[in-house]
Amino acid sequence: MADQATATKGTTLGTGTRPDWEVVVIGAGVGGIYQIKRLTDLGIKAVVLEAADDLGGTWYMNRYPGARFDSESYTYGYSFSRELLDEWHWKERFSGQPENLRYLNHVADKFDLRQHMRFNTKVVAMRWDEPTHTWELSLEDGSTMATRFVIAALGLLSIPTYPRYEGMDSFQGPSFHTFHWPHEPLDLTGKRVGVVGTGATGIQVIADIASKVGELKVFQRRPNWSSPLHNGPISDEEMAQIRARYDEIFETCARTPGGFEHEPDRRGFYTLTPEERKELWDELYETPGFAIWLRNFREIFFDEEANAEFSAYVADRIRQRVKDPVVAEKLIPKDHGFGVQRVPMETHYFEVYNQDNVELVDVSETPIERVTPTGIQTSAGHYDLDIIVYATGFDAITGAYDKIDIQGVNGEKLAQKWVDGPSTYLGILVNGFPNFVMLAGPQSGSASTNFPRGIESGVNWITSMLEYVWEHDKTRLEPTPEAQEEWTEHVKKMYGMMLMRKAKSWFTGYNSNVEGHEHGKIRYFVYNGGAPKFVQKLSEIADAGYSGVEFD
Ligand code: NAP
To answer: Would the CB of 66 count as within 6 Å of ligand 1?
Structure first.
């Protein structure tokens, strides 16, 4: 077997035997794929365990119509291989799910990484064994395996959450979460479709299917600020220009807080006249991607007045696009300003509501009472439906960790430790859970930037830390409680400055469908200092011999 063929660099157990693996990576998404490449390139005996039946993570699961990058495609791809950059042609500026999955498969095949992956392999529990410095993993099929290190590449948004309406199981037609959109073709022609939820996912799916279905009912509890994506094809000539610019593109991404090509406008909101500000916003509204969010004035993120002025600008844009003024008002958020929640990007989303076959059902006014065998009952009436789509979000950031029974030193449970929110060192390590390493974990900078950019820097740092362990003949690493406390306090403090702290968003741990994640009690989920500061911090810590981490 290829597994056996893999070199077995690593150290022996206290008992004199080797664990089955030196490193187990959980998850074969964007992070797991790159992590296993780095480890196996070093000759480490490592394997990826993936619960799904193939690789791709987010891009394997989310097959709903309209699923595509909100990141410029060429800033989303891996940067580690010049050959890969030179041979891959992104066909669209914001590439769609099928192409994205093809890309990840291409990477795995090109670097022969599938041999190191086991699919349909779900880790259900992990127990730390102190005497041998190993983790014992229990798999869903009842088997176990021992490993020195675990790298959790679980994804930030990989546990979908459904509403808790009475009668959901009684619906006679197909009904599913967008994450579980059927892999086989689903004919929507002439169908009466209900979509619950208007986050980034709902907005993509609604805009895509509105012209394909018979009738579309959108059940909206709260509207989201959203602005045009401006997608388009990338010609051969443009792709050649992008390839020639790759070094510059990745340098820019490394310099900007969000890990994109978009750099904040640092002129200062109040140094300009309202007309000058509007000039910038007119330009940004027509610029592709997250420019409107990330090339904007920085004050938008922490100054109520600045944010209100910009939100009013976007509200006017929505009013110009939606013919019925009553519907337009319903589509304009009133409880939060632009950009304090993750901004969904849209393609003709607002125009959808000008179509005769589309109806916006405001379930904040007329709540959903139950799902019936034939549709959805609100307090105002019954909506007959053939298909129900739940675009109702995820148990974000910590949800995937909570799903595994992770027991650290003295049997302490991670889910219990984090019951009121995570505490970590750098979003990478947790005190009491030795040799457990998180890729884009809670409170890491990798979780709050253009994901692949954050993931690459995370993987590289983690791999270097493990090399340090192996070079120094150590078998155990754990962050100190002090280092963890300091980092968590730092993360909390940054929330204090941001308007986002008040928002009902997964950035603050809000999810009405998850017990204990109601609005009002912030979970400090992400590092808001931006990618460059995070990477700088990581490098200082590495240079100091991994300060804050104890090795044994
Ligand atoms: P989300 O932003 O959490 O939105 C969930 C939506 O469902 C909200 O409109 C929410 O309403 C609604 N909802 C939840 N429970 C409900 C209930 N019981 N009854 C009625 N409505 C309910 O989730 P998402 O849209 O899946 O997006 C999550 C994240 O995934 C995004 O923020 C983004 O980071 C990522 N994403 C990325 C892309 C991309 O890069 N292209 C695309 C899609 C998603 P409330 O607002 O009232 O809670």
So the answer is: no
Decide whether any atom of ligand 1 lies within 6 Å of the 204 Cβ: yes
Q: Is residue 229, in this structure, part of any structural domain at all? A: no
Distance of CA 518 from the midpoint of ligand 1 (Å): 15
What one-character DSSP code corresponds to residue 423? Answer: -
Distance (Å, whole) CA 138 – CA 121: 10
pLDDT, tens only, 149-180: 999 999 999 999 999 999 999 999 999 999 99
Q: Does residue 226 have its Cβ closer than 6 Å to ligand 1?
A: no
pLDDT digits (tens, 9 = 90+) for 438-449: 999 999 998 779
Q: Is the pTM of this model over 0.90?
A: yes
CATH number of domain containing 19? 3.50.50.60
How many structural domains does the chain have? 1
**CA separation for the pair 497, 411 (Å, rounded):** 37
| Contact criterion met (CB below 8 Å) for 5 and 129 | no
Spacing, Cα 201 to ligand 1 middle (Å)? 6
Residue 260 lies in a domain: no
Q: State how far the Cα of 126 lies from the Cα of 357, in Å rounded to an integer.
A: 50
CA-only gyration radius of the chain, Å: 24
Residue 452 in contact with ligand 1 by CB distance below 6 A:
no
Give the DSSP letter of residue 456.
H
Q: What is the four-CA torsion angle of 160, 165, 166, 167, rounded to 10 degrees?
A: -60
Supply 56's token pair.
């791709």
| Residue 411 Ramachandran class (φ > 0 left, ψ -120 to 50 alpha, else beta) | left
Q: Which residue range(s) make up the domain with 130?
A: 2-159+395-476
* pLDDT, the chain, mean: 95
The DSSP-derived string for 397-412 is: TTHHHHTSEEE-GGG-
DSSP character at residue 315: H
In angstroms, what is the span from residue 517 Cα to ligand 1's centroid? 14
The CA 396 to ligand 1 mean position distance, Å, reads: 10
Tell the residue nearest (CA) to atom 14 of ligand 1. Answer: 392
pLDDT tens for 25-50 read 999 999 999 999 999 999 999 999 99
Residue 58, in any domain of the structure: yes
Q: Apex CA 428: angle with CA 550 and CA 491, to 5°?
A: 105
Residue 237: inside a domain: no
Is any ligand 1 atom within 6 A of the Cβ of residue 198? yes
Ligand 1 and 70: CB distance under 6 A: yes
- Angstrom distance (rounded) from CA 69 to CA 232: 12
Classified as helix, coil or strand, 54 is coil
| Mean per-residue pLDDT, 251-277 | 96
